[in-house]
Amino acid sequence: MTKTLLDNIGNTPLVAATTLIKNKDIKLLLKLEGNNPGGSVKDRAAYNMIKSALDRGTITPETRLIEATSGNTGIALAMIAGLFKLNIELVMPENSTRERVQTMRAYGAKVTLTPSDSGIEGSRDYAEKKVKEEEYVSLNQFGNDDNWKAHYKTTGPEIWRDTDGQVTHFVSAMGTTGTIMGTSAFLKEKASEVRIVGVQPADNSSIPGIRKWPEAYLPAIFDPSRIDEIIEVSEEEAVTMTRRLAREEGIFAGMSSGGAVSAALKLADTLEKGVIVAIICDRGDRYLSSDLFV
Question: H helices then E strands: how many in the chain?
Answer without folding.
Answer: 9, 10
